[in-house]
Design brief:
The radius of gyration is 19 Å and the shape is globular. It is of the alpha/beta class and about 270 residues long. The chain starts with 7 loop residues before the first helix and ends in a 6-residue tail after the last strand. Helix 4 crosses helix 5. It contains eight helices and twelve strands. Helices cover about 30% and strands about 25% of the residues. Strands 6-7-8-3-9-10 form a six-stranded mixed β-sheet, with helices on both faces. Strands 2-1-4-5 form a four-stranded antiparallel β-sheet, with helices on one face. Strands 11-12 form a two-stranded antiparallel sheet. Bound molecules: adenosine-5'-triphosphate and magnesium ion. The site of adenosine-5'-triphosphate has 13 residues, from strand 1, strand 2 and helix 2.
């Protein structure tokens, strides 16, 4: 099996860089224990892309997402969003960027348990200064878009996992972010709920939202524009999805993250 290398310069032609990670390193220290979670990540993410990030458990996917989303800062290196260096922003500017430009969807939904679906969705709008009536109207529209118009008054405990994740997606879209960060968004969902989340993310991407998603889910991989493999805190491989043949894993084919390994196989096709 031959593997054609990813030609970054050729791929970038005519594209607008939305995220630029440059030599991003992250080291965690707990007492004498030092973990080099990221060892120098260089990655450009273009507007309109749908990037899937894969890698075994502990390879640094969530750490990388935290850096890109401005939830944590790198030990070394830089992250630029729309060519703005996040490290140069003060706390208020960073909060503004996180609130307005980036939406977050996590594996464990991270909804506020005492708030209703609508309150969860409108909270970021309120933070952004939107009037309560307008926020409510937009919140209902977003919940309708993810198929939960009739569940607006439910609290997370009164919803299924899939419904909670769709609420989390609606919340992530509260302030119409240009970038959506999804960290294993279907990992806790059953097949049907996962499919619904795929559909929503695909439609959002088709409507212009840039998506970066940590996943091993073959349906997401199939609609992505590029796939990035991270291993031991480093980028191991990047491929344009159309050059990769995605095969469904057979039962029992489990990778070391514990997830079913939908192992993508390189076809050897050219990147032209
Ligand atoms: N806050 C932290 N303090 C110390 N070590 C951490 C911290 N967060 C992550 N790590 C370590 O950094 C490494 C990368 O973790 P990370 O959560 O990014 O992996 P991951 O690829 O997202 O894994 P998974 O697929 O299990 O979610 C791991 O070795 C982890 O133990
Ligand atoms: Mg993770």
């Amino acid at each position: 099996m031959t593997e054609s290398p990813f030609n970054a310069a050729e791929y970038a032609v005519g594209k607008h860089i939305l995220v630029r990670a440059q030599g991003v390193k992250k080291t965690y220290q707990r007492g004498a224990e030092i973990t080099h979670a990221l060892k120098g990540i260089d990655l450009e993410l273009f507007r309109g892309e749908y990037i899937c990030v894969m890698g075994p458990s502990g390879s640094g996917k969530s750490t990388f997402f935290n850096m890109v989303g401005g939830l944590d800062s790198p030990t070394a290196g830089r992250v630029f969003i729309d060519e703005v260096d996040m490290a140069q922003l003060n706390a208020q500017e960073l909060a503004f960027l996180r609130c307005r430009k980036i939406g977050y969807v996590f594996q464990s939904y991270n909804l506020n348990s005492v708030m209703t679906a609508l309150e969860n969705v409108t909270l970021p709008m309120t933070f952004a200064g939107m009037h309560a009536d307008e926020a409510r109207e937009r919140g209902m529209k977003l919940l309708g878009m993810v198929g939960l118009g009739d569940r607006w008054n439910h609290r997370p405990k009164q919803m299924s996992g899939g419904q909670q994740q769709r609420t989390a997606i609606a919340r992530a879209l509260a302030n119409a972010p240009s970038l959506l960060l999804c960290d294993e968004p279907t990992a806790n969902l059953d097949f049907a709920s996962g499919k619904e989340v795929h559909r929503i993310l695909r439609e959002l991407n088709e409507a212009g939202t840039t998506i970066i998603c940590a996943t091993h889910d073959h349906e997401m991989l199939a609609v992505s524009s590029r796939m990035v493999w991270i291993s031991g805190g480093e980028i191991e491989r990047i491929a344009v999805t159309r050059d990769v043949q995605i095969v469904k894993a057979s039962l029992g084919d489990v990778d070391d993250s514990g997830a079913t390994a939908n192992v993508p196989q390189q076809t050897g096709a050219s990147h032209a």
